[in-house]
Every structure is written in C-alpha cells, then in structure tokens.
Amino acid sequence: MASTAHPSFPSRGYGTSLGKLPDRSIGPTFGASTSQQQREHQRIERERERLEKERQEREEQNQLSEEQREEIKEAFMLFDLDKDQKIDYHELKVAMKALGFDLPKAEILSILQTHGSPSEPANPNVPRHPRLLLPLAQFQSVMTQRILARDPRDEILRAFELFDEGGKGKINLNDLRRVARELGEGLEEEELAAMIDEFDLDGDGAINREEFLGICLQ
Known about the structure:
The protein is mainly alpha-helical. It has helices at about 30-60, 65-80, 90-100, 105-115, 135-150, 150-165, 175-180, 190-200, 210-215, and strands spanning about 85, 115-120, 130-135, 170, 205-210. It is elongated.
C-alpha cells in the first residue's frame, strides 16, 4: 500500500530573534537621570552659595581700612607659630586678644567649630582626636565681621589705654611725652602742654576717657 505523504509545515523559528521576549533588564533610565540631575543641581547651588559668600566677605573687607586689614594679617602671622597658615585654639585666643577681642573659652571654641577644619593626624596609625584649626582666610573673615560690628567707642578706648600708662584713667603730660618719644615725634614740651590744655575740660591737668572720646568723635 502506497504511503500517503503528509504536507510539511514550516517549523517555528525558536532560535530566531522573532520569538524572543523583550529584555526587561534594559528599562527606562528616567529615575537614574532624575537623581543625577538633582545631584548636579545641588552641586551648582553649593557653588553659587560659596561664590556669594566670598563676594560678601570681599565687600566686608573693603569696608576696613588698609591699616586694619594689615593688622589682622600681621596678628595671624605673628601667632601662627609653626607657620602652616593655620592657627589652633591657643594661637587664635592670643591673636584675637592682640586685636582687642579678649573672648572666653566657649566663644573661641564656637568660632573653631563653625569656621575651622580638623587637623591631619601626625601618625595615621595612632588613633587621636583631631584638633580644630582656623586657616588665614577664615580668620580674616571672622575678624572683619567683629571689627565692623564693634562700637567705635571701643576702638577709641583701646587707643586711650595705649596712652594711659599704668591704667590711671587719665592721660597726663608724662604719657604724651612717652608716646611722642616712642613714635619718634620731636614735639617740644610747650606743644605737649598745649595739647593737654586744649582738651582738658575739667582743668585737672590731664585728659580723661570722656574728654579723649570727645576729641576723637568730634
């Protein structure tokens, strides 16, 4: 009996790409892209804030006289004993005192915590609590703000104390003679006496604090 030939059907192409399911591992990157954009936005915002802060600090420093800016820098350099362009708690305390700011320990520590940065460990293998150090730029910024916020009377009274040897509360002829000599001013005795007479309002032969303030503020 002759065999009946069955028609052949095309086989399914299981091995072809037409039969594959879509690869779900390659999904949309919307979430990752958004996160990256947020980080970039935050970076730009931080940079903008940094530049704005620097601009404000420059404007504040421009309000100081050249002499005041030099005094701030000289105080830092004088008490930066290891010359690393950073000062620690003790160096900061004496530098600020030299500029007329005798602050308590808590306030000095607050400045370091706000504006300072931790020191590098001398030996990384030895665990040790890092010290806080204040760089020159931050010191200039801190001192500029404090000087600008200071009552002008405080500055004048600081100058008064430089004249008033021994803390008498008055500047007499001997004080003027000493300061003139230290400054190299060749003033005659009559000129010094005339300065006392001109501003001595109560006639006691000396210039007290209020009289000195009146001279400087008029």
